[in-house]
Specification:
There is one protein chain. The protein has 372 residues and is α/β, with parallel strands linked by helices. Among the domains are: 102 residues, Cytochrome Bc1 Complex, Chain D, domain 2; 117 residues, Oxidized Rhodanese, domain 1, CATH 3.40.250. Helices cover 40% and strands 6% of the residues. The chain is built from 18 helices and 7 strands. Strands 3-7-6-4-5 form a 5-stranded parallel β-sheet. Helix 17 links the parallel strand 6 and strand 7. The two termini are 27 Å apart.
C-alpha cells in the first residue's frame, strides 16, 4: 500500500513526507534543508494603511506599539527576527485568524466572530513581515528526530521556569497549546529554541545546549501535540482503501447543506460522535495531513489525479471535504467530484482551523518514537 501511495502522490510535494514514513530513522542533519523563499506579495499603499490601522486597533494592547511583545498576557514579539523569518505566512496568519485555545489570543477572523475579513488577516500578516525587514527562510516539513524522554528532562531544566512545567506559560507564551504544536513544523520549533526570540527574554540556546539536546526538546514538545497528557492513539500509517469509509455499518448522516454545499463543524462533529457512515477528505498537501487532521480523514490533495485518488471511494456514501483556507481547496475538489457523478458531497464550512478553534479534536499522523 505504501508503494501505491507513492504512486498516487508521485507528482506532489508530499513525496518527501512519505519517504520519511518509509525511512523513519533519518537524522535531523540528513533531513535539514535550508534556503530562502521569495518575498510574499507586496501590499498596496491602501492595503498597508488598513493593515497598520488594524494592528493599532486590535494588536497594540498585548503585542505593543512597536510590535515588541509582552505588553500584556505574555504576547510574543511580532518583530523578532527568528519569528518573522520562519513564521510567515501561516504561523502568523493562523493564530491571528483562529486564536490559540486556552490562551488570551482570540480569533480575529470574521468567520469565528472576529472583526477582520480573510483578506484583512492576510494583509496584516504581510504588513508585519514587511515591517520586520527580514528574509523568509525555507523550512523543511520533515520531523526532527530526538529522544523524547531526554527532551523532557532538558525542558524541565531550561524551559519550565518561563513556560511552565506542563507548558502552561508563566512569564513566557504557553506551549501546551495543541493547535500551535500541531501546526508549527518541527523545524519552526527547533529554530525558535536554537535562535531565541530577539528583543525578548527568550535567549538563543544554540550556544548553551548541544544540537542533540535541542532536537530532543523539539521531539518532546512535538509529542505533546495531542495534549500534555497523551490520551489518544497515534496513527502509524496512511490509511488504505478499505479504511476510507468510516463507520461502515453506520447510518447516513443526512446533512442539510447550506447553499447545497456546506456542512458546519457542529453537525459534522455530531455525526462523527453518532458514528455515521462517511468519507472524510483532507484536500490539503499530504504533509500537513501528517501534521494534524480530523480523525478518520484520508489525504486527498486537491491537485491529485482523480483517477488514482477516487479508487476505493463508493458513490453512495456521504463525502465531506475540508481544507485550511478555509474552503478553497475543498470547494475545488468537491466540484471535480460532482462532475464525476459523486452527488453525495459536502464541504466543511469552517475548515480545519475553524474546526479546531471551536474545540473539536484533531490527530497527528505517523510519529516514530513518541513514547520513548
Amino acid at each position: 500500500m505504501k508503494n501505491k501511495l507513492l504512486t498516487i502522490f508521485k507528482n506532489s510535494s508530499s513525496i518527501s513526507c512519505i519517504i520519511v514514513l518509509l525511512l523513519p530513522n533519518l537524522s535531523f542533519a540528513q533531513n535539514h534543508e535550508r534556503g530562502t523563499l521569495p518575498p510574499p506579495r507586496k501590499l498596496t499603499e491602501q492595503q498597508a494603511k488598513v493593515a497598520a490601522a488594524n494592528y493599532k486597533k486590535y494588536c497594540v494592547l498585548c503585542h505593543g506599539e512597536d510590535r515588541e511583545g509582552h505588553a500584556n498576557d505574555h504576547a510574543p514579539s511580532l518583530r523578532s527576527k527568528s519569528l518573522m523569518e520562519s513564521g510567515v505566512a501561516h504561523q502568523i496568519l493562523r493564530p491571528m485568524s483562529y486564536g490559540r485555545k486556552g490562551t488570551a489570543m482570540a480569533g480575529y477572523l470574521d468567520e469565528v466572530g472576529g472583526p477582520m475579513t480573510l483578506d484583512e488577516t492576510w494583509d496584516l500578516t504581510y504588513w508585519l513581515f514587511e515591517m520586520s525587514g527580514v528574509e523568509r527562510l525555507k523550512f523543511s516539513t520533515k520531523p526532527v528526530q530526538g529522544n523524547v524522554k531526554h527532551g523532557e528532562e532538558v525542558y524541565q531544566q531550561h524551559c519550565s521556569s518561563c513556560h511552565g512545567e506542563k507548558g502552561q506559560g508563566i512569564s513566557a507564551p504557553a506551549l501546551a497549546n495543541q493547535s500551535a504544536l500541531a501546526h508549527n513544523t518541527d523545524e519552526f520549533i527547533r529554530h525558535a529554541i536554537e535562535n531565541g526570540r530577539q528583543d525578548t527574554p527568550m535567549k538563543a540556546f544554540k550556544d548553551l545546549l548541544p544540537s542533540d539536546s535541542i532536537n530532543d526538546i523539539t521531539a518532546f514538545l512535538r509529542s505533546k501535540a495531542l495534549g500534555w497528557k497523551e490520551e489518544r492513539t497515534i496513527l502509524k500509517a496512511l490509511p488504505t482503501p478499505e479504511q476510507y469509509v468510516i463507520n461502515k455499518n453506520g447510518q447516513d448522516p443526512n446533512f442539510t447543506l447550506q447553499d447545497g454545499m456546506y456542512v458546519s463543524s457542529e453537525h459534522l462533529h455530531q455525526a462523527l460522535k453518532d458514528k455515521k457512515r462517511m468519507v472524510l477528505l483532507d484536500t490539503r498537501v499530504p504533509s500537513v495531513w501528517q501534521t494534524a487532521h480530523i480523525e478518520g480523514s484520508i489525504p486527498f490533495p486537491y491537485y491529485a489525479d482523480l483517477d488514482e485518488t477516487v479508487a476505493g471511494i463508493p458513490k453512495d456514501v456521504q463525502i465531506i471535504a475540508y481544507c485550511s483556507c478555509p474552503r478553497a481547496a475543498a470547494d475545488y475538489t468537491i466540484k471535480k467530484l460532482r462532475k464525476r457523478g459523486y452527488t453525495r458531497t459536502a464541504v466543511l464550512w469552517e475548515g480545519v482551523f475553524g474546526w479546531m478553534n471551536l474545540g473539536y479534536p484533531v490527530m497527528r499522523g505517523d510519529i516514530e518514537g513518541i513514547s520513548n
